[in-house]
Each structure stands twice: as C-alpha cells, then as structure tokens.
Sequence to fold (92 residues):
Amino acid sequence: MASQHLPPQEDARLPVLRASADANWRQHNPELVEQLEKSGSMNRLLDSAAERAVNVLQQAEERGVPANQAEELANEELYLPAQKPKEPQDSL
Fold:
C-alpha cells in the first residue's frame, strides 16, 4: 500500500534532519562551514541536504525498506566526508 507523501518542506522530519546535518558539518568540517557561512550558502545547502534526505526516506518507506536501512541511505544525503586533519609541517 503506497502512502501519500508530503512535500519535503512539510515533512515533520525535515527540521530534525537539517539540525543533524548542521551539527555534523560543524563538528567534522569546520573549515568548510566557515567558507559556506561567509559565502551565504550554508542555509541553502543545509535545506537542500535535508530535503534530499526526506525524499530518500519517503521513497524507502514506499518500497518497504527497513527503517534502519532507510536511515543509512538518508544519512548519505546529509553528512559530508570528514575533513582531513592537517599534517604537521616539518620545521627547519
């Protein structure tokens, strides 16, 4: 039985997913977050990531994918790869 999907912007999970992405990005990619905030694109990109994650969850639910697997798929839309630590420079 297919469920009727709300637009991502009306799905109650959207703000939760957006907040999760924001926290993750800030923790694991602080330099990128700083650049995105300076350019004014941080909010737009967080909104977009959360909307994509909601779409993934809705599609997974429609296909009967187990909740934990659907969440893993959605997380791929939310989380950025961790920022690589800077390697120490040799002092001469």
About this structure: Residues 11-78 form one domain. The longest helix spans residues 42-63. The two ends are 69 Å apart (CA to CA). The chain has a mean pLDDT of 88.
